[in-house]
Amino acid sequence: WNSTYHMIERFLELRTIVNDIIIRYKNAPPMLTASELSILSSVLQVLRPIEAATKEVSADKYCTSSKIIPLIHCLLLKIKPLKLEESLAKELQSVILKEIDKRMGVIERVTSLAIATILDPRFKKMHFTDPIACSSAVAKVKEFMKATIQNEVVESDSSDHSDKPEDNFSFWDDHHKLVHKSWKTAKSDDAISDELSIYLRSPVGRLNENPLEIWNDLKIQLPKLHTIAYKYLTMVGT
């Protein structure tokens, strides 16, 4: 708790220093020294990605939860590699990275967000840095698809039995049922593999496209995935 408190306290001090420089720059640019200009330039390099991420979310009329993991990943890709010379900017960079890790370090392991990201045609598996989290989310999607197909098989079997006359005895009818069940199970496994592999192998959608509209076009080709995608992509990224 003490380390967190001191880190937040230092972050507030840094913000005050930066704000002071920015205010002076806006009011009277010539008054800034060469050193202050260098600090301001370095600090803005750190803050620019955060500003861009904030604008991205606020400008989106309907920001889906599938955007959270990609946003965090892109934010880190912009801030981590920065080679800064000014100590103030370096410290700001360090504090921001620690805060992101503290709040979003395990974001890929949040199942609902991971599934939403994978089922967003604009992102799929591209922004995952944790392969275990990614494979777990894919496995979960397969489970949902299998459950949907099994429910359809049960309904189909019940409707088949209702049409058969009760007095029509056959010694091998149980054998036929087992064959029928095994065929349907194999067919359902194939359907799951086919739909998921077709989706994951297909090109990603454009960033400016609406993922729900993309899935509307994929509904006929990928009916099982379509149902799951609509369930997860309608969650708002708050």
Question: Can you give a write-up of this model?
Answer:
InterPro entries: RNaseH-like_sf, ZnF_BED_domain_contain. This is Zinc finger BED domain-containing protein 4. Keywords: Metal-binding, Nucleus, Zinc, Zinc-finger. This protein is an all-alpha fold. It has 9 helices and no strands. It has helices spanning 2-27, 34-59, 68-79, 87-104, 111-118, 131-163, 173-201, 211-218, 223-233. It is elongated, with a radius of gyration of 27 Å. The two termini are 26 Å apart.
Number of strands: 0
Q: From the structure provided, what is the oligomeric state, counting identical versus distinct chains?
A: single chain
Taking all residues together, what is the mean pLDDT?
Answer: 79
Biggest sheet, in brief?
A: none
As a whole number of angstroms, the C-alpha radius of gyration is 27 Å
Helix-strand makeup class: mainly alpha
**Basic shape:** elongated
Provide the succession of SSEs.
Answer: HHHHHHHHH
Determine the fraction of residues in helical runs and give it as a percent range.
over 70%
Poorly predicted parts: none
Number of discrete helical segments = 9
Question: How far is the first residue's CA from the last residue's CA?
Answer: 26 Å
Instruction: Indicate the proportion of strand residues.
Output: under 5%
Give a brief description.
By secondary structure, the chain is mainly α.
SSE diagram, text form:
Elements: H1 2-27, H2 34-59, H3 68-79, H4 87-104, H5 111-118, H6 131-163, H7 173-201, H8 211-218, H9 223-233
Helix pairs in contact: 1-4, 2-3, 2-4, 5-6, 6-7, 8-9
